[in-house]
Amino acid sequence: MSGQRAARRSAGVTYYPHVESGALSVAGVAALVVVVVFAFVLGISDAPNASAVLIASRGASYRRAMAFSFVVHAAGGLLAGQAVALTMTTIVRVSAAQLPGTYLAGGVAGLMFTLLLTRRGIPVSASIAIVGGLAGAAAVEAGWHAIGWGGFRGVRPYGVLGTLLAIVISPLIGGLLAGALRRLLGRLLHRASRDVLRSLRRMIWLTAGLVGLADGSNDGQKAMGLATGVLVASGSIHHFAVPLWVTATVAFALAAGTAAGGRRIVRTVSSRFYRGGPLDGVAAQGAAAAAILGAAFVGAPVSTSTVVASSMIGVGAARRHRHVHWPTVRTVVTAWFATVPACAALGAGLFELGRLSGAL
């Protein structure tokens, strides 16, 4: 085995050295379509990430904020690396023949759950949903051992447990960092002139752009990793390297989703969690960007929408707890905890249905 293959195995990455070159199966093509749709739905759930604070702080109109979100998310996707994409291939451990069907059922399960809650205005984590859906489908396909339970190798997460822990830890970091940054800025600028405070509105654009770039990179890599995994399993490509056409397709699908994101979910994040001023926006967006970029550096597929929401909550709590709309927070957190079991059950059911019907 070459050093490159050994490195991939040590990172927990699924690799299929026995697969011969060949065309994609029907399930493989369907899985790729679902992955692109997944990127679009990720974009919908990410719609508030680079726009909610701009709207909440009155720095931009809804249309202008969404146009800005499209540009920065597309740029983030196009500039994405591959660390997070590699981590996504460690969630399930199935054979090359089983992989397309597993991705198809798990992906559809994650999409259905995410769309259901998004339509109700609840910011759900599509990242958590896809992990649950894939795990449930893999368990039905090949048993519990087919789930890559994983953990951490150093600071790098892999498998289901490593990914979910990263998703849970990252919003805590974002919220704590946002609260600390808000207190620091408040002390430094409590006697600032109006000119200084007005300049903060321009800083919000900068921090929102950083969030969009980080968001497009992290979430884009999730879909890129799944798509490339299907291509490797089919023998269409011989080693894990995200093709340029996959990068471009996913980047623009994700960006289109952010631009098409519903007003209800943007309103939930921009006003129902916490509605603050320019100083709050800079602190929330700066903290969220730092948390997401740090996660991408170590290959952690985090829930970017969760990090942004928790950063806004952290800013509100740093000022006064009563400034945060806690009933909305409880509703969203409950939805996050219900996501994994619900999507796992749905993924398992869809795979079994596909197998009984002969589709998988």
Overall strand count: 2
Unreliable sequence segments: 1-19
- Percent strand equals under 5%
Number of domains: 1
Largest sheet entry: 2 strands, antiparallel
Radius of gyration: 20 Å
| Mean pLDDT over all positions | 81
**SSE order:** HHHHHHHEEHHHHHHH
Tally of helical runs: 14
**What is the straight-line distance between the termini?**
32 Å
Q: Per the principal axes of the C-alpha atoms, what is the gross shape? A: elongated
User: Strand sequence of the main sheet, in spatial order?
Assistant: 1-2
Structural class: mainly alpha
**Percent range for helical residues?**
over 70%
What labels describe this entry?
2% strand; disordered N terminus; two-stranded antiparallel sheet; 360 residues; 14 helices; 72% helix; mainly alpha
Helix and strand arrangement:
Elements: H1 3-10, H2 26-45, H3 52-56, H4 62-78, H5 83-88, H6 99-119, H7 126-142, E1 151-153, E2 156-158, H8 159-188, H9 194-234, H10 244-260, H11 263-273, H12 278-297, H13 304-319, H14 326-357
Antiparallel strand pairs: 1-2
Helix pairs in contact: 2-6, 2-9, 2-10, 4-9, 4-10, 6-7, 6-14, 7-8, 7-14, 8-12, 8-13, 9-10, 9-12, 12-13
